[in-house]
Amino acid sequence: MLQTWRKPTRLFGDFNTLQFASVMSLVLFVVLIEFLTTPTWHHTTAADVPKVLHPVSMPGAAREDAMKVTITRDGKVYFGVEQVRSFDLSQKISDRLKDPEVEWKVYIVADMRARWGSIKPVLDGVHAAGIRRIAFLVDQRRSAAFHM
Amino acid sequence: MAFSMAGRGASGPQINVTPLIDVLLTLIIMFMLVVSMDPEYGEKAQIPQPNQTETPAVPQPRTVVIEVVWTAKDQPPTVKINQEDVPWTDLESRLTRIYLSRMEKVAFVRGDADVDFQYVADVIDLAHHAGVQRVGLMTQNQTLAGE
Questions:
Q1: Which of A22, B70, B92, B106 is the most buried (most CB within 10 A)?
Q2: pTM of the shown model
């Protein structure tokens, strides 16, 4: 009688949790680094925004398609993550406004030490694109210490 | 008669990783929630454009212009309400008094080019807290009627 060899029917229910834990630790590490290094605003370049006592919530600024203009301390201007010149900003915004879903509002992320003189041309560019409503993104200041 | 369980001797110590994974997953979810719920704060403002073709027939003495005037390097600027110097500490109370009886709660902010943005942001913030609903930013050196 011919006997065929059969593989033993052993269930492989042994999950290697040690490797899974390693991957999870790595993911946690990456998330932690991301959390610690990401500023409060997203999709823009770095600027140390002013801290004020009574800011209001700006949920629209967290939208993916929110138009954000960043002005760094040295006066460089970014539309999103793209560096632009102030006089090109109007055209860039106008192009974005062709999308009917885009909010007609520009969020300005200006460094607290940026000169007001470097922000004024940006405001003119925003206005030239037909936008009147703007918002400066700021952080909450905890202490009431003030300029004397 | 000897009895052996596995035949390879005693097994080494093993860490129970299941609770470790539970903790890690909980931490990941918490961090993701904190990041996604991080609120954005801001200060609203508007950019008014002066009408170039028409001049107001009647002066508007009630226009309030808050000026942030540069003084010296590394020194805080001074602040003025309609050309009148106001200490920073009194700015909010002064604005509150001005706008207490007003229907139109509009103020204009003008700053010198060398002033740090932090001070302009503070003025906008204090104006809003004092009851101003619309803050217009003057980007050119025009004067408003009634200033």
A1: B92
A2: 0.71
Residues within 8 A of A (CB atoms), B 15-44 only: 15, 17-18, 20-21, 24-25, 27-28, 31-32, 34-35, 38-44
User: Predicted ipTM?
Assistant: 0.71
Q: Which residues of B touch A50 (CB under 8 A)?
A: 117-118, 121-122
CA distance A144 to A52: 9
pLDDT in tens, B90-136: 999 999 999 988 888 999 999 999 999 999 999 999 999 999 999 99
Residue A109's nearest CA partner among A142, A68, A148 is: A68
Candidates A25, A48, A15; CA nearest to B20 is A25
Residues A67-121 pLDDT 10s = 999 999 999 999 988 899 988 999 999 999 998 888 899 999 999 999 999 999 9
Interface test with A, best of B33, B41, B116 (most A CBs within 10 A): B41
Q: Would you say residue B1 lies in a domain?
A: no
A36 domain residue, yes or no: no
Task: Give the count of domains, chain B.
Answer: 1
Q: Which residue has the tokens 């996604």?
A: B36
State which residues form the domain around A117.
51-140
